[in-house]
Design a protein that fits this description.
It is built from 5 helices and no strands. The N and C termini lie close together (11 Å). The model has no long low-confidence stretch (mean pLDDT 91).
């Protein structure tokens, strides 16, 4: 990160992309009853956090914190690698789909989340993370 402006832009990108990912998965869950939004907010696998009873608002805030940290890290990576605007969009899309793919097995650690064998859940989950990557890419194009 070279400037405070870039840092603020990455924070805004993380907030917007995180909120839109959450809204997308919440909508999918409301329409299909596939617990992908529940998976997004799930902290059953985090020691100490899994012992707390948290409201949806607190869980969503934790999701947004992770989203902001990820956005800042990805913008820093993009700037340090000097990716072109076109290349950065593709890379961000691939990275975020990869992150989604790596996180999906967390379904094994909770009874509230979809089955690891749910192809529909995996597709919605990966599409949501692809959407997240595209939104970050659009924000980062404007910051470059």
């Amino acid at each position: 990160m070279r400037t405070w402006r870039e840092l603020r832009w990455a924070v805004l990108a993380g907030l917007v992309a995180g909120v839109l990912l959450g809204l997308f998965l919440k909508g999918v869950e409301a329409i299909t009853a596939i617990n992908v939004y529940t998976l997004l907010l799930n902290v059953d696998f985090v020691p100490m956090l899994n012992e707390l009873t948290m409201s949806e608002g607190i869980e969503f805030t934790l999701h947004l914190v992770v989203s902001i940290v990820l956005a800042v890290a990805l913008l820093w990576l993009m700037k340090s690698r000097l990716w072109s605007k076109n290349k950065s969009m593709s890379i961000l899309l691939l990275i975020n789909v990869g992150i989604g793919f790596l996180l999906f097995p967390l379904t094994l650690l909770s009874e509230r989340t979809p089955s690891i064998w749910s192809g529909e859940a995996l597709l919605f989950w990966l599409f949501g993370h692809a959407l997240y990557g595209v939104i970050l890419g659009l924000f980062f194009k404007k910051s470059a």
